[in-house]
Design goal:
Strand content: 25-35%
Number of strands: 8
Shape: globular
Helix content: 10-25%
Structural class: alpha+beta
Order of helices and strands: HHEEEEEHHEEE
Largest sheet: 8 strands, antiparallel
Number of helices: 4
Length: 193
DNA sequence: GGAATGATGTACT
DNA sequence: GTACATCATTCCG
């Protein structure tokens, strides 16, 4: 897997990750899904990015350079999983928002409390729970090892839907068109307008 | 030391 | 559609 792919800017990597496989083998078995929805968080000019106000203990993984995981807790309840992008020291990442489940669906269902298959990986907190990803994986490499991203051929441009990022409050870059999805996928967390 | 807050999900009306 | 659970991190004093 080419590390250079992950050193691209977040705005380039986010659509590039659509169709890629996210594989997790931390729970004994093998669970994987196809990435169908992402959001880019930029190193510059993006107040919604966790790295916008500099390096802190929580966001240090974002500065480790493309190809590592950035996992953090949100709302005291859930975790979100990001693929760090860009060069070391930049502070940018791509949030994975939804997957199409592929392997280990039984394990995912068990981890999620027997929800409907359509809801297994629909949303950033859900997919993290389904795959068995947690705070322990923060900072792990994604190029190889038990948690990894296997890139596929880049999606055809006409298959990529673009929209505003979800859940950002006012003044946090909520207008920026940095949300990407596979057009028409049944596994998106929300429809694109 | 303390208070505010968030890249959310679930349950319920 | 709205309520609310729940807490690490951040920022302010």
């Amino acid at each position: 897997m080419s590390a250079a792919e992950f050193a691209r800017s977040a705005a380039e990597l986010a659509p590039r990750l659509l169709g890629a496989r996210l594989v997790c083998e931390t729970g004994g078995g093998r669970r994987s899904g196809r990435i169908v929805e992402t959001e880019a968080y930029l190193a510059a000019g993006d107040p919604g990015c966790h790295a916008a106000s500099g390096r802190t203990r929580r966001n240090r993984s974002m500065f480790a350079g493309g190809g590592v995981a950035y996992v953090y807790r949100i709302y005291g309840l859930h975790h979100c999983f990001n693929v760090v992008s860009g060069r070391e020291g930049r502070g940018e990442a791509v949030l994975i928002r939804a997957l199409e489940p592929v392997e280990g669906i039984d394990a995912m269902t068990a981890a999620r409390g027997s929800v409907a298959p359509a809801l297994l990986c629909r949303g950033p907190g859900r997919l993290v729970e389904a795959l068995g990803i947690g705070a322990e994986q923060d900072g792990w490499t994604l190029l190889d090892g038990p948690l990894r991203v296997e890139l596929a051929r880049p999606p055809e441009p006409h298959r990529v839907a673009v929209g505003r990022r979800i859940g950002l409050g006012r003044g946090r870059g909520e207008q920026l068109a940095l949300r990407f999805g596979l057009r028409g996928s049944a596994w998106l967390s929300r429809r694109f307008p």
